[in-house]
Design goal:
Distance between the termini: 145 Å
CATH topology of one domain: Leucine-rich repeat, LRR (right-handed beta-alpha superhelix)
CATH superfamily of one domain: Ribonuclease Inhibitor
InterPro entries: Dev_Immune_Receptor, Leu-rich_rpt, Leu-rich_rpt_typical-subtyp, LRR_dom_sf
CATH class of one domain: Alpha Beta
Largest sheet: 23 strands, mixed
Structural class: alpha/beta
Keywords: Leucine-rich repeat, Membrane, Repeat, Signal, Transmembrane, Transmembrane helix
Bound molecules: 2-acetamido-2-deoxy-beta-D-glucopyranose
GO molecular function: transforming growth factor beta binding
Radius of gyration: 39 Å
Protein name: Leucine rich repeat containing 32
Length: 662
């Protein structure tokens, strides 16, 4: 592998050397200070009870320990001393035990390791030394001695510079997994890994690697995964690590990737995202590549290496995933898809593609997802019998105005269509005019987003013969929906979004949509709510920001048994004409997430009243107190009437007697 670092390599090395001298000087100054603070804060060794013991595993994380507990049981297999205060790693700090299989020393302050400490630890497989101060130890230029059995070594975040890893790796014959993430390595020398020839995975994420010497990785016959992401690599001109399967070069400054080896090439995953690639990577003619990510680069063409040489066809017989999103591609000729027979995912979103077409039915037979979102796409053509496996098509944020009206009926497997932010029109069942797209008779279609399309009209039966579960028609202000526009969706539609459509009255019958559970009618001009029947299954209803004054109580009552969430804020509701409804909300378990904004208007109050505070009395409707008064009044009236009638009778009797007397 030949790697060319950027300019300024010399300069960087000089700076590093200089920095090293500085650090040493600072350390010499600091060391006495450090010793003082050690003496001051020395505590007696902690005892075991603070740790958790599970069989032969001991967990002592985050206990401010300077060493392992003195009474560590014999035969501990796993010791977790992470996030403590260990500074000097020695037999003493490990309680003179050596039978460990797994030692976790992450997040301590280790700046010294007793040489030869791990020599006799013949069971030690996993050693985590991440987030310590091993750069200080490396300055002493002492080798830690053999890592006899260690298979996994984590040296990440230790401030290690170029060459410092040598003191840890010189004699580690069993090492399989190595992490050097988050250090300050600028160069990988040809002999860096010569003492660790069993390595399979090397992580060098987040260093400042500019240069990799010839032969550095070639000695590693078993190397299958190499993570060089987030470094400063600018160019890879002769990539020949034939056993490598995963190569991550994401977040470098790579402009060119070339590999023209004729040896068997095993690479399956190549991540070149967030680089400065100008051309498509050049891969060997026969390769195993399955996954290529060249998103967020500077590709303007799908050509390799700018036509520097005429090349024969590269076969991508294993390629399943290709991400070329966030580039500057202007077009992708159909021929690009030749020899990519099993491609499943194609992401070319966020490019400059104005026209895309697949007419050859032999191409892209296996493709399931195509993402063409955020392009200036004006023309889209798919021939008969193309894309038989296509399930999801993303076309968000393009300039699509006219499409062949039967274009989507061509795809027998299509489930998701993301067409938001275009300028499409929906055809009626009879295809009356030319410039429209038909959405009926797409049997597997479940998800359709048509928001922000300047839709004016939604004709009758627009979606019959589909399996639509979700339909988003939001942000089409002025949309006129035919009263039968949703017919055919009675038993499938679950989500319906109609927000920001400036609808003043909904003439489409929603009560026949028996499966409908979630409906968003927010930010319209509704003065009435739709009519629902008792068997509706609406669970969430959004009526925020409309013109609702009086809600039809019978309609709301029909939702009482199914409704779980209701948005009502920003409506000019009347407090007293919705009293029954407001009391229904107050006593039911319906959640009103925007309750703070949900107010009603009462003529006797200058400010809107929160609906939770509305009472019968406010609306002068007899409450229980009034009831007593009324009873008292009635009783009084009855008493008065009785008294009067008694008087009257007596008077008449007297009169009678009087007359008898007469
Ligand atoms: C570390 O500990 C060992 C053994 O306890 C001791 O001999 C050595 O001097 C210590 N080193 C430092 C740098 O503290
Ligand atoms: C490559 O590394 C980046 C981190 O920098 C990570 O997000 C990405 O998932 C890695 N790619 C692969 C294929 O592992
Ligand atoms: C491209 O699309 C694929 C598949 O849908 C997705 O997994 C990937 O995250 C997308 N890439 C970017 C950069 O968004
Ligand atoms: C398609 O691309 C857009 C824009 O890059 C992205 O937001 C969306 O998540 C992608 N779709 C998938 C399924 O990855
Ligand atoms: C439809 O697309 C719009 C973007 O214009 C997005 O905000 C909305 O969430 C999408 N709808 C659904 C249900 O995902
Ligand atoms: C529904 O689709 C079937 C089969 O594709 C077709 O025979 C039928 O005429 C379609 N019905 C309507 C109303 O379009
Ligand atoms: C919304 O509808 C009203 C009439 O109901 C109309 O006056 C207004 O212009 C419309 N606004 C938009 C943005 O379409």
């Amino acid at each position: 592998m030949l790697l060319v670092g950027g300019l300024g390599l010399r300069l960087r090395e000089q700076m590093c050397a200089w920095l090293e001298i500085c650090t040493m000087a600072v350390l010499q100054l600091l060391l006495p200070l450090m010793v003082c603070s050690v003496a001051a804060s020395e505590r007696p060794p902690q005892h075991l009870p603070a740790c958790q013991v599970v069989q032969m595993d001991v967990f002592c994380s985050n206990l401010s320990l300077r060493s392992a507990p003195v009474d560590l049981p014999q035969g501990v297999r796993l010791l977790d001393l992470s996030r403590n205060q260990v500074q000097n790693l020695s037999q003493e700090t490990l309680a003179y035990q050596s039978g460990f299989q797994h030692l976790n020393l992450h997040g301590n302050k280790i700046h010294f390791i007793q040489p030869g400490l791990f020599k006799d630890m013949t069971d030690l497989r996993v050693l985590d030394l991440s987030r310590n101060h091993l750069n200080v130890f490396a300055h002493s230029k002492i080798n830690i001695g053999p890592l006899t059995a260690v298979e996994s070594l984590d040296l990440s975040n230790n401030g290690l510079y170029t060459g410092m890893s040598d003191y840890f790796l010189a004699d580690s014959p069993s090492l399989v997994d190595l992490s050097l993430n988050g250090n300050s390595i600028t160069k990988i020398a040809h002999n860096t890994f010569s003492g660790s020839s069993s390595l399979r995975r090397i992580r060098l994420h987040n260093n400042v690697i500019l240069e990799i010497e010839d032969g550095a990785f070639e000695v590693l016959d078993n190397l299958t995964e190499l993570d060089l992401s987030k470094n400063s690599i600018t160019c890879i001109t002769n990539f020949n690590l034939c056993n490598l399967k995963v190569l991550n070069l994401s977040k470098n400054s790579v402009e060119l990737f070339r590999s023209a080896t004729t040896m068997v090439f095993s690479l399956t995953h190549l991540d070149l995202s967030e680089n400065k690639m100008l051309y498509f990577p050049l891969l060997p003619r026969f390769n195993m590549i399955e996954h290529i990510d060249v998103s967020r680069n500077h590709l303007q063409t799908i050509n390799v290496t700018g036509g520097l040489e005429k090349r024969t066809q590269v076969y991508f017989n294993h390629l399943k995933y290709l991400d070329m999103s966030y580039n500057q591609l202007k077009s992708i000729p159909e021929s690009f898809f030749h020899c990519k027979d099993i491609l499943e995912v194609l992401n070319v979103s966020n490019n400059c593609i104005s026209s895309f077409s697949i007419t050859n039915p032999g191409l892209l037979q296996m493709v399931k997802i195509i993402n063409l979102s955020f392009n200036p796409l004006q023309s889209l053509t798919f021939g008969e019998n193309t894309l038989p496996s296509l399930e999801k098509l993303f076309l968000q944020g393009n300039d699509l105005t006219t499409l062949e009206h039967g274009i989507f009926q061509r795809f027998p497997s299509i489930k998701h269509l993301h067409l938001q932010q275009n300028n499409l029109e929906v055809c009626s069942l009879k295809h009356e005019h030319q410039d429209c797209v038909s959405f009926s008779s797409i049997p597997n279609l479940q998800f359709l987003n048509l928001s922000e399309n300047n839709l004016m009209i939604l004709p009758a039966n627009a979606f019959t013969n589909t399996s639509l579960k979700l339909l988003d028609l939001s942000l089409n202000p002025g949309l006129e929906m035919d009263k039968d526009s949703l017919s055919g969706l009675e038993h499938t539609l679950i989500h319906l979004l109609l927000k920001e459509n400036n609808i003043s009255s909904l003439n489409t019958d929603l009560s026949s949509l028996k499966s409908l559970k979630h409906i968003d009618l927010s930010t319209n001009q509704l003065t009435n709510i739709p009519v629902w029947s008792k068997d509706s299954s609406i669970e969430s209803l959004n009526l925020q920001n409309n013109n609702l004054v009086t809600l039809k109580y019978s309609s709301m009552l029909a939702l009482e048994h199914s409704l779980k969430t209701l948005y009502m804020g920003s409506n000019p509701l009347s407090c007293c004409s919705n009293l029954d409804f407001l009391q229904m909300v107050q006593r039911s378990a319906v959640v009103v997430p925007d309750i703070e904004m949900t107010t009603c208007i009462h003529k006797e109050y200058s400010e809107p009243v929160n609906i939770e505070k509305v009472t019968n009395e406010m609306c002068h409707i007899s409450g229980s107190q009034n009831y007593v008064i009324v009873l008292v009044v009635i009783a009084l009236v009855v008493m008065i009437v009785t008294a009067l009638s008694v008087r009257f009778c007596q008077a008449r009797k007297r009169k009678h007697i009087r007359s008898f007397n007469a």
